[in-house]
Write a structure and sequence with these properties.
66 residues; mainly alpha; 2 helices
Length: 66
């Protein structure tokens, strides 16, 4: 897997380390990014199913009278 180097403010890195409970800034950022992506996928799967159900529902053509 390719790796990317990101420069962060030291205070931000320390806050992330404290929130994630890690001793390494690299591990902390990786955990935060992985969690962010997982949350996005969970939210997408919850909201997409309802929208897809309505979108894929067969609409009945109007009944022609007369």
């Amino acid at each position: 897997m390719a790796q990317v180097t990101v420069t962060l403010d030291a205070n931000l890195a320390i806050d992330v380390m404290l929130l994630s409970g890690t001793a390494s800034p690299q591990d902390a950022i990786e955990l935060i990014v992985r969690d962010y992506l997982a949350r996005g996928r969970r939210t997408e799967s919850r909201t997409t199913e309802a929208a897809d159900g309505q979108r894929l529902a067969q609409e009945q053509p109007p009944v022609q009278e007369g």
